[in-house]
Amino acid sequence: MRVERLVEMIGADFYTGVPDSQLKSLCNYLMDMYGIDPEHHIIAANEGNCVSLAAGYYLATGRVPVVYLQNSGEGNIINPVASLLNEKVYGIPEIFIIGWRGEPGIPDEPQHIYQGEVTIRLLEDMGISSFVIGKNTSEEEVLEAMKRFEKQLAAGRDVAFVIGKGGLSYEKEMVFENEYQLTREEVIRHLVRYTGEDPIVSTTGKASRELFEIREANNQSHKYDFLTVGSMGHSSSIALGIAFNKPDTKIWCMDGDGAVLMHMGAMAVIGANAPKNMVHIVINNHAHETVGGMPTVAGSIDLTAIAKGCGYPRAVCVDTLEELDRELKRARDCQELCMVEVKCCLGARENLGRPTTTALENKQGFMDYLRESSISRTR
Asked: For residue 258, is it left (φ>0), alpha (ψ between -120 and 50) or beta?
């Protein structure tokens, strides 16, 4: 189905969301039509942020907003849906457009499998009526669903269109870029060089895929790395938990700007505790690149100032390999919490693969390595 027709049927003039590859057609349409415009379209930090922002729009205008997200973000909307939107509370109507990763019967990555299985069930549990748009869904079927939804919206209830693979199309492809020269893969190669045998917790998306392939190219073990393939925004908290319990081991967190923004409160907890054995690397390309390249707000805020305000003793920003090497060496050798923000361009190799080990194998190998390295240090 052409995304223009869905937008026309919905009839809303305000959209907010977190980008998703399954919703790339919708995201491209919104960027093509509005760009980032507070009157019509805002890319938010996380899905709960979107729901609340949209609620503010409704309270100010009386018009029904649209929130778009990947189904992995359903967990982030549960609280505001249940305690703010629900008809037993304020009865604020919103239309959700949800990308269905891990749709049963369609092969997908491991982090999407269970989420895909419970997508519709979670909506039902939240009292949200849903309609699935698949590759062969007709416009007539969608129009009929929208007519049913209108009655529910008028009663202060929420509804959702769940978009299966190939469910939406848009002819125009958007191209996103910034002014930086470093590639993310270059940054990760240098990071691997300086971390040696120290553990790395890497964030969701292409960064973890690149780290895996760099280890392969170097004939190195994958036991050093925990690849946070799901739970976007939580890799720094995972790293913090490890750092607390392995105080004699340098723990590196390789993060992304979108992930940092999604759960920025983690930085406050990290800074307040300031583990001396943790290094927080933030690779910032100002984009949600893994799901299409739509912009984040990380291009217009000062992440290092935020880190310092949260209590990080040291936080620096670099955009050249010379600066990167200097700061990685300093981070490796120092005995204090530090952040290194690295500005880089968008883009990845077209032949970039995916980890060939399972998530369970990755977990077990990483845990074994942490245990073995602790034993060797006590000898």
From this structure: alpha
Residue 304: Cβ within 10 Å count? 16
Q: What is the pLDDT of residue 131?
A: 98
Give strand pairing partners of 17. Answer: 43, 68
Asked if residues 32 and 108 have their Cβ atoms less than 8 Å apart, the reply is: no
pLDDT tens-place string over residues 191-200: 999 999 999 9
Supply 18's token pair: 């977190």
- Provide the mean pLDDT of the chain: 96
Query: Residue 288 and residue 303: Cα distance in Å, rounded?
Result: 16
CA distance 191 to 208: 13
**What residues pair up with 226 in beta bridges, in sequence order?**
201
| CA gap 75, 53 in Å, rounded | 17
* pLDDT tens for each residue of 71-92: 999 999 999 999 999 999 999 9
- Structural element, H or E, at residue 70: strand 66-70
Pairing mode, strands 225-227 and 200-202: parallel
Cα–Cα distance measured from residue 318 to residue 341, given in angstroms and rounded to the nearest whole number: 6
Q: Kindly write down the DSSP assignment for every residue of 295-316, as one continuous string.
A: EPGGGSS-HHHHHHHHT-SEEE
pTM of the model: 0.94
* Helix or strand (DSSP H, E) at 113: helix 110-125
Where b means 16+ CB within 10 Å and e means fewer, 95-119 reads bbbbbbbbbeeeebeebbbebbeeb
- Which pLDDT band, with edges at 50, 70 and 90, does 177 fall under? very high
pLDDT of residue 87: 95
- Exposure string of 135-154, with b = 16+ CB inside 10 Å and e = fewer, is eebeeeebeebbeebeebbe
**CB proximity list for 269: less than 8 A, separation 6 or greater:** 237, 240
CA dist., res. 69 & res. 74, Å (int): 8
CA separation for the pair 47, 19 (Å, rounded): 10
Contacts of residues 118-123 at CB distance under 8 Å and 24 or more positions apart, as own/partner, are 119/71, 119/74, 119/162, 120/162, 122/74, 122/78, 123/74, 123/98, 123/160, 123/162
- Which residue is associated with the tokens 């997908």? 108
Rounded distance between C-alpha atoms, residue 92 and residue 109, angstroms: 34
